[in-house]
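Below sits the subject:

***
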Amino acid sequence: MFADRAKIIIKSGKGGNGHISFRREKYVPNGGPDGGDGGKGGDIIFQADEGINTLSDYRHKRKFSAQNGEDGGKKNCHGKNGEDLILKVPQGTVVKDAASGKVIADISGKNQRQVILKGGRGGLGNQNFATATMQAPKYAQPGQEAIEIEVMLELKVIADVGLVGFPNVGKSTLLSRVTNAQPKIANYHFTTLSPNLGVVDLDGGKGFVMADIPGLIEGASEGIGLGHEFLRHIERTKVMIHIVDAASVEGRDPIEDIKTINQELNAYHPDLLKKPQVIAANKIDAIYDKKDDIIDKLAAEFEESGIKVFPISAVSGQGLKQLLYYVSGLLEDLGDTTVVYEAEYNPASSLFKEDSYTIERADDAAFVVEGPKIDKMLGYTNIESEKGFLFFQKFLKEQGILEALEKRGIQDGDTVRMYGHEFDYYK
């Protein structure tokens, strides 16, 4: 089965904890701190792989985790960094936040490899917190936590030209005739259940990639049939070729078919109608009543709006050369840019907000409080002075940290530890 969507859970590696230890050597009875730093956690990386064309690898396994960083050790030993986890996906895979639907990354064009989740930073060992007034710090920084999110992977086919049209109008036949693709062809609705890609090579002209987008039906934009599954593949194409059954073999009206499909495209995403369109009036070899010239009617209806009509026969090859060279010219005018979706969401932003903080209990029962804002505040506040200390205390109250400590059960005389600084708590 062709798999173009998959929902998975990804988790970066946690940073290793910093170590608390002191030099204990012969002739050095009161050695200083020598606790090493923790290792960084592994990243989650998505990478394009030309040898993969589906997301089937992610349909049966749902959770993927990078390696945690190792804790630091004594004698200034640095913990080993966790290994990154590289997830290989097809070109054109869009990674979205499953909850909001916002784009995290688009693995397309020049963006062939992207770090989606960064591993946690390793914690600093106690050797980093020695000061003139605190020469034996019994504190080490814990490693930064891992990030875990659920993401939706969507494969949006990368093709220069998309063939659109109702079932059985000859899209698969045309693709097999003009490219190296070998789609299954049969006279059944929805025979093509996945986009088939092929390369069109032109003598003296620039080749391009053509995709047979599976048959659309009325109501596709509302998800009827397999509408949404198919419509997403049109988003990347630069030019659309409407294929219609000019001979009305199944009694369809070619003009109404084009209007209906354009309505579905507009309902799904109005920008799709801004793409150049071409009409390929297929099966002209099966037109026996020349009085009712459908080609003239199509031209009269659409060419005024810039949509050129080409009578073709995908079976006999009639008119194909003119169609393909015209499309090649349109692509030349549009240039080589690939449609790449801009990132809308950073997974780390919601988990590590500037005003967030954590409260943990250390092995010695001290309350360890950490957060980006606290770290910055301590960096530019002189808490050795009375004025500076009162200013810092006011900051803790305004941020709700004192109230949070009380909820955690802190008592008078308990120790509060913040980035190497220790305070006795009194209400």
